[in-house]
Specification:
Chain lengths: 246, 306
């Protein structure tokens, strides 16, 4: 069940020169799971902008977005008190229930945000998650302390070695010989593929695609899976490891 | 005052509560929108374009944003006519009890005829809409809708296998839309639906490549409304069969404008993608807009502009 609503911006601040965090106050009862997304209508732009939910509670949704084009640039210029027309509760999201005791969370770049609420929910369910975050360089790193404050083991990889371990998330997993029995991942396609190839462990991978509607009507974001065609926006963005076709 | 207006229309003997119809390809088989509102408020639904075989469609990205519109290159992804009849239509019947318009595509004359013969047996399908914008695989990939002869050939083949009203959905990517519409009328078409999308293209200037994987796609949305009004006007003026107007409709005022240009019913397409409530809001705004313009019966304004 998805829903359209008006959300008031209560925070819009930069975490890095290109990554921003926005808090939106409004009805959140349609947000059911971590890993879902919202679709934001912006003045003067025809299509909505799909952004994953970083965190949510009974009154607000937090999103973290990277300024990459006109839509996100426009968002970054909005002020507290302004409101946005959003469709919320979109996508299937991660299933917290299926994880075993020691799940590994992997977030690459702006694929990291949905791991935050997921991590909180896994901890609340009595599980012991650990997290690997991957970035290109130290200047892009965000939310390291926020994750550490959740009391979990946090590993950081940067491609140029300017923060944490040098290399990709898969290098960190190998170097520190991380032990885990389930994987949750969100990030760029090459990262997801490398992770898939580096470990046989079962898990869930969140994918990205250009979308038309975001709620399953237009077939703009279809991908092939072992269980037939799926729309990233409603049947995803999270796919189970076993169904993925690269 | 406002509630005394009459929004009903009649399309080849099919009575609709109002002229607002979600356009094929922007509304799936209705299911997704039933989460947002009661589909029975709609005049009719034109379901996702259906072909003989199941189709995956084109590679992604299939979508490109434009000023006041969107380019799509979905490539007729659909589960195939048999699955539509066995799964999609029964599911739609659970949530929608008004006329269904079946949108049929094909890559050969035989495929069109075969699909239409099958869909002809479905009781709730009251109108068949034939999309002639697809490439003809037996004729170098030229779209059936780009010549009067091939559009007429499809029309004749389809008319032979069904007694339901047949609307031919025309492509605007032609030199002379009127000659094609007339040719369809002469071949027995019961109505014309226009316009399909305009061929468009966007380029990712950072990556120096097309945004859409298939390079080009169909441009729709608010931006194409004036083109659609013009073509509806031209065709409605030249033909004696009813026209379903389509292209960039986003408000009750647009619906009335399209009807004044000559449309008997009006389809709403890309607006559904940005605003899932688009059709509902348009239908709810119609009585007030009619009252404002002094229109008592919507059916009376079709083609009033000469």
């Amino acid at each position: 069940m998805s829903k359209r609503g008006t959300y008031v911006i209560t925070e819009n601040s930069s975490l890095t020169p290109t990554v921003w965090r926005m808090r939106l106050a409004g009805d959140t009862q349609c947000v059911k799971r971590p890993g879902q997304f919202i679709n934001i209508a912006l003045d003067g732009l025809f299509l909505r902008r799909p952004i994953s939910v970083c965190d949510y509670d009974s009154q607000s949704i937090t999103i973290i977005y990277k300024v990459v084009g006109r839509g996100t640039r426009q968002m970054s210029r909005m002020q507290c008190g302004e409101s946005l027309d959003c469709l919320v509760g979109l996508g299937n999201g991660f299933s917290v229930e299926t994880a075993s005791q020691r799940p590994l969370l992997v977030g690459g770049g702006v694929g990291l945000p949905p791991m935050y609420n997921l991590c909180k929910q896994l901890i609340a369910a009595g599980k012991k998650p650990l997290l690997v975050m991957g970035f290109n360089t130290a200047g892009e790193v965000f939310y390291r302390s926020e994750f550490e404050q959740l009391g979990i083991d946090v590993f950081c990889a940067t491609a140029d070695g300017t923060e944490g371990a040098q290399g990709f998330v898969t290098d960190v997993i190998r170097t520190f010989d991380l032990k885990f029995d389930y994987i949750y991942a969100c990030g760029p396609l090459p990262m997801l593929r490398a992770l898939y190839n580096a470990s046989e462990v079962d898990g869930e991978f969140s994918f990205e695609e250009r979308m038309g509607c975001g709620f399953g009507a237009c077939m703009g974001c279809t991908c092939r899976t072992k269980y037939g065609n799926k729309r990233i926006c409603v049947d995803g963005p999270v796919l189970k490891r076993e169904e993925i076709i690269w | 005052m406002v509630n005394r207006v009459d929004t009903s229309i009649e399309l080849c003997g099919v009575k609709l509560d109002n002229p607002v119809i979600p356009a094929s390809g922007t509304f799936g088989f209705g299911r997704e929108f039933a989460e947002f509102y009661d589909l029975d408020i709609l005049g009719a639904i034109s379901i996702k374009g259906t072909t003989r075989e199941a189709r995956f469609g084109n590679p992604t990205p299939r979508i490109a944003e434009c000023t006041s519109g969107v380019i799509n290159s979905v490539g007729l992804q659909n589960p195939g006519i048999d699955a539509v009849i066995s799964h999609e239509l029964p599911a739609l019947r659970e949530i929608f009890h008004k006329p269904i318009i079946a949108n049929i595509s094909g890559f050969s004359i035989e495929e069109y005829a075969e699909c239409c013969a099958k869909i002809d047996k479905e009781r709730q399908v009251e109108i068949i809409e034939v999309n002639v914008s697809c490439p003809n695989v037996h004729n170098g990939g030229m779209s059936f809708g780009t010549s009067p002869e091939s559009a007429a050939a499809v029309t004749r083949a389809v008319k032979r296998v069904t007694t339901k009203p047949v609307f031919i959905k025309l492509s605007p990517n032609v030199t002379d839309i009127v000659s094609i519409a007339r040719s369809c009328e002469d071949a027995g078409a019961d109505g014309i639906c226009l316009i399909n999308t305009l061929l468009g293209m966007r380029i990712d200037t950072m990556r120096r490549r097309p945004v859409i994987a298939n390079k080009m796609g169909g441009f729709s949305g608010d931006a194409i409304f004036p083109v659609a009004v013009r073509m509806v006007y031209q065709v409605a003026s030249a033909c004696g069969i009813p026209v379903m107007g389509c292209g960039g409709v986003a408000s009750a005022s647009d619906v009335i404008e399209m009807m004044m240009a000559g449309a008997t019913a009006v389809q709403v397409g890309a607006a559904n993608l940005r605003n899932p409530y688009a059709c509902k809001e348009i239908i709810e705004a119609l009585p007030e807009e009619m009252a404002r313009l002094g229109i008592e019966r919507l059916s009376e304004i079709t083609g009033v502009v000469k």
